[in-house]
């Protein structure tokens, strides 16, 4: 299977090469664990290879995301101007109340609150597929998918919605990272539905051990490739997420 | 009682021979624990014996499953071409919106969403029984049964649905593996309904012990045969799942 | 109080003689813990004494139960042919869709799904009482009672249903074992309603201690007799369940 | 405050004398912990003092209770014949479907299931107060109160029902023991509503410590008197419940 | 900020003086922890200063409360006769079914059960404010507030009800103690809504440590003053609650 | 990114400078942990820089907040008179039942209870934005946001409400602190929705370690800046919250 560099130093090593090309990988993390940072690192890595990348924003607007990562010295505005990185603003706060995204029209919006229409799963999938195809996008990040998923309280419908979303992303042929929230801590771990339905799952966990805050990354699953399943320490440093594939998390 | 090889090195030893022939065994596992890998190993082992095997896909399409296991060097396409391994695509994404599976027609579909009809339990049972009979199938994997089960929130109806499914699989005379999701981790273990209703249960657990990720397989139950009930370590290696029947999981 | 042998080696000793004659005892166990095996051992022990025993199957058909225990060398078909052991098939899968059990007619069936009628609590009680009386049955096993109980989500009605069932079994004068599922593991133990309402409770627990799977039997309660309340190890061996009344479970 | 002997050896010492006279005390226990045994010991102790005692049965019929305690050598039939101990059968199984209890008529029954009417809280209170008054009863046991309480799922109404019951028992002037079920084990203790509303609470707990089953009694609260609040070991021996007020539960 | 003595030896020291004058303080405790005892000690301390105190009973009638504390040698009847301590019986069992409390009329009663009307939050507030004003009350205890709070299952309405109650107590200018039930034990602590809304919170906890029952008091919060936040041991002794401000709870 | 001093000694150091200017930061804390104190320290720090600050009170009235912090020697009345600190009383208890806040009119009130109208999210946002703009406010505290959030039991709507609130605060350009309640303790940590949606999260936790109450502050997340993620001890001392950025919480 072909691989694509993850963009996070040390993570390629855990994966034995990089993310499997064309797969959809779930990144699950507690608050502040670095989900968005990892997603952006991933897309940037794509642009360094000549790939075109797409960031789909669902909670925080693209302008904020760009600002958040500027401290790492990443100039996303420049990449956008160069056409290497595209943004879809699917947050409830996008400036245009109409349903266009850039030059893409969307059919079928879910009117949660008429003044600020929220994008429906079908509408989002339409736009993403069209952009991916017409713009030859090879990497996509959807950050986070939680707001799409929480609309389906019924477990059967939720399961279906997640499968539909993952299938649509797969159909683009791009390598995709989707982020979601890890609700419980390490001790009382309950596996979340999205983890079972993904082809790959990376956990970003922050735990407390002996009064120390510990950051651990774990490749819980990655179908189709052999990988190191262990918890490895990582940190959010000057250049984004850095993983230490040879170290143990505790002593 | 007759036995059939499991296909996973070391697991036959735990069972004192192999799976009991003609029984339906539940494989429960956390995300990334290897449920699908074990199911495919099991079917392949059947084809090596001259048995005909059937894989029923409910979440991931057969094409994806084949790709996922190609890293182990398993060529499922070839087995399929040789007529040794058959696939039923019962996922919500099958190409044909009509209700045929290969040359088998299905009565009674549950229209969850009309555009992409989802297969009903009765419809699936019909097709599986017919294929098993007409094609003399000796091994069946249903992977996973979760989407069939979650449609029944009422405990009495859920219990019944599971019993009906297991009875139908038993009636084919084939040895069957069905997979499902283990929702809670080792520490706060709550037994799931399907475990009580199965004739055999194999648990694939991933736990964290002293900061290490540990994989343990356990034959929780196997009616009719004596077996080793202990937790044993396993890994997902180059040839699929490999079990170490003589080792302890912790030190 | 008179006693009857339990049929499980070592268990009589814990009870100081055997089960109290004529009482209804609940066996609660996790999956694979041996509930059915204990129930069958109990009935066989009765037949060795010249008693007539009755097995009421609610989930697994009698044919399957017989097959499951054949590995222990128990020939239940023979006992049945000799009239020492009788079976009521009250599973959803009994061959006859009509409401006869052997030569006993049942009034009042609960039509959960018309095609496969499920037996109502009242209907089952009627048949069991009639068989017990007309056939002079001294031992009864109802395995498991869970499907009867889960139909009553309301706590008051559930309490009542269990009391009605236990009262009916008591009225036969037979010594009765009823099995049910232990839903939570040792660490987070929540007592189940049936335990409070039974006259006697035997727990079959499987726990994990230091990475070892440990089987422990505990007589939690047995009204009217003195008994050893401790956890004792047991195993499922060549002759069924064997208890070690003098040993500790850990070290 | 006056005291009355509890009837359980060692418990009077923990209480610094015995139960406070005229109060209503709650006994909470896990299955098999000895709630009914303690209640009967308490009533017997009353009869030894020349007191008249009343046992109100809600789950198990008086005949069964008498049989259960016969192993301790307690002849409750004799006490009943001597007029020292009275029984009210308020179980769903009482022989008389009409609403008389002995010579006492009851107004207002709650028809849960017409064939076997279940006694309403108001009806029970009426009878108990009348019997207590006309027969000069000084000790009352209501065993258990759970079936009365579970009918009120709404927390406000449940609170009220419990207060009404306790108030009614108080008004008789008798010293009363009411039993109820302890639903959670020692580790994940959630306090139950009845504990807050009682004037006194005795816990009978069975826990597992280092693989040993341990029985501990604890006077959690006893308004109006000083008492030892510690966990003390107890056993159910030849003479009923025996408490060891000077010992520790562990090591 | 002015302080008033708490009445509990050792507690003033933890608070650096006493309760802040005019504030409303929540006392949360497990069953038997001494909530009512602390409340009464607090009111008595007021009477020793020449203050007039008011006890509002919601579960247990004033007569019972007086009896409960008589063991400490506290003669509340005398204080009442001297006009230093007043009682409002707002329990469901007050003798007068009409709506007068002493000489105070109440508007607007919540008819939970017409025969025994239960006091509404608004009605209770009216009476308390009027009594406090006309009788120049400086200390008030409301014991417990749970029955008022449980009527509001909706979180938004419950929040509001608590705020309204606290605001009303504040407006009297009196220093107020309100008691409530601590539902969970130390290990699985979930903070209760009232704790966030109070100006001060004192926890009375009973825990089990190494098999010993341990009583610990903790000033969780006290807005406006510096206080010792540590767990301190306390006991219920001959003179009520006694706190040991210099000791540790464990060894 | 520009920084603004937090006002809490030692916290600037953890953040590597101070809060990021113009961001909205969530302060989550258990009862009595110091959320309001931190919020007020933050606003005061602003006034020392010549900034104008705004405190939005939702549970406790401004008068009470001022009194609560007077023990630290902070004279908020004076700051208010000097026009450096403004208060919006959005509690249910504001004197004016009409909808004016100072000189600002509000459209659209949510009539939870007509007598005491509760402010709607939209109404509050309107007022805050207008005050912030017209009065050139650079720092805002909203304390607490819980009452706004609990009105949305549906997860999708709650998510949306929080995003709308945060977006509105961001749009003012001010640096904002919003406080909320930490419902679970350290051991059974469940992450709350607001933590995922904030740009920065500071946790104020009170835990019990070896019987000692321990206060720990943790910057769980702060998008856009590097920060120390560790637990650090803090105390509420004479000058408010003081953090010890170089110390460990345990031993």
Structure description:
6 copies of one chain form a homohexamer. By secondary structure, chain A is an alpha/beta fold. Helices cover 29% and strands 27% of the residues of chain A. Chain A has 8 helices and 13 strands. Chain A has helices at residues 11-15, 35-48, 62-70, 76-81, 121-134, 146-149, 155-171, 193-197; strands spanning 3-4, 19-20, 24-29, 53-57, 85-89, 100-101, 104-105, 139-143, 175-181, 200-209, 212-222, 231-237, 240-243. In chain A, the strands form 3 sheets. In chain A, strands 5-4-8-9-3-10-11-12-13 form a 9-stranded mixed beta sheet, with helices on both faces. In chain A, strand 6 (100-101) and strand 7 (104-105) form a beta hairpin. In chain A, helix 5 packs parallel to helix 7. Chain A binds chain F through residues 30-33, 36, 59-60, 64, 67-71, 91-93, 112-113, 116, 118, 144, 146-147, 150-151, 153, 181-185, 187-188, 206, 208, 210-213, 215, 236-238, and chain F through 1, 155-157, 159-160, 163-164, 167, 170, 186-191, 195-199, 201, 209, 216, 218, 220-226, 229-231, 248-251.
Topology:
Six copies of one chain form a homohexamer.
Chain A: E1 3-4, H1 11-15, E2 19-20, E3 24-29, H2 35-48, E4 53-57, H3 62-70, H4 76-81, E5 85-89, E6 100-101, E7 104-105, H5 121-134, E8 139-143, H6 146-149, H7 155-171, E9 175-181, H8 193-197, E10 200-209, E11 212-222, E12 231-237, E13 240-243
Parallel strand pairs in A: 3-9, 3-10, 4-5, 4-8, 8-9
Antiparallel strand pairs in A: 1-2, 6-7, 10-11, 11-12, 12-13
Helix pairs in contact in A: 5-7
């Amino acid at each position: 299977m072909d691989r694509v560099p993850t963009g996070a130093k040390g993570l390629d090593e855990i994966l034995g090469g990089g993310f499997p090309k064309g797969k959809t990988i779930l990144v699950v993390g507690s608050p502040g664990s670095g989900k968005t940072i990892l997603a952006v690192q991933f897309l940037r890595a794509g642009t360094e290879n000549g790939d075109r990348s797409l960031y789909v924003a669902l909670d925080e607007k693209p302008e904020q995301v760009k600002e958040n990562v500027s401290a790492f010295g990443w100039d996303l505005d420049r990449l956008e101007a160069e056409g290497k990185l595209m943004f879809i603003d699917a947050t409830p706060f996008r400036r245009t109340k109409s349903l266009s995204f850039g030059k893409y029209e969307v059919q079928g919006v879910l009117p949660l609150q008429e003044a600020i229409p929220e994008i429906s799963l079908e509408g989002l999938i339409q736009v993403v597929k069209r952009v991916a195809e017409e713009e030859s996008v090879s990497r996509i990040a959807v950050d986070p998918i939680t707001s799409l998923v929480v609309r389906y309280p019924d477990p059967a419908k939720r399961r279906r919605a997640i499968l539909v979303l993952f299938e649509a992303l797969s159909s683009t042929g791009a390598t995709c990272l989707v982020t979601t929230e890890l609700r419980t801590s390490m001790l009382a771990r309950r596996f979340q539905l999205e983890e079972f339905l993904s082809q790959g799952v990376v956990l970003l966990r922050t735990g407390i051990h002996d009064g120390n805050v510990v950051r651990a990354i774990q490749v819980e699953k990655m179908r189709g490739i052999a990988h190191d399943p262990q918890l490895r320490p990582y940190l959010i440093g000057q250049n984004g997420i850095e993983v230490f594939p040879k170290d143990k998390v505790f002593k």
